Amino acid sequence: MRKLLFFALTVSITTQLTAQQSFKKTTLYGEIGGNGLGILSVNYERQIGAKPGLGLFVGISPLSGNKPSIVSGVKYLIDFGNHKSFFEAGFGITLSDREYMGAKRNNLTNENPYTPAYIPSVGYRHHTKYGLMWRVNYTPFISKYNNAAFYPGISVGWRF
What we know:
By secondary structure, the chain is mainly β. It has one domain: Porin (Beta Barrel). The chain contains two helices and ten strands. A hairpin with a 7-residue loop joins strand 1 (26-33) and strand 2. The longest helix has 19 residues, at 2-20.
């Protein structure tokens, strides 16, 4: 009977302790450079699990050429052990204006004006206990018309 009572008490205390430190799964952030390929993009990210790990993001960059760019992709966060600092790796696809990406005007037809750019990324991410998130990333991009080996990204946002 004592063992059963001890087990029940241990489980209830552990459940209460983990419930007090919930991980904020949703992040809304602005990014300069990075996946948006423009001056600024606004992005929404959602972590899939209860702990930092796999997440999906989508965004829009209104200041990249004549038409806005559409950003989407996946990210994976690796915790450095303190639930504040993370290594971030990801892969994104950005649909951007062909002319902005470097296509010659005479090569453009009346077909789809967008072209995809494939963007792997690696970087450092930091969460504060108040909900603020900031990060710096290395985000080279590859497209049919233009490639950039060095393209950094800086982001600041809020987790909720």
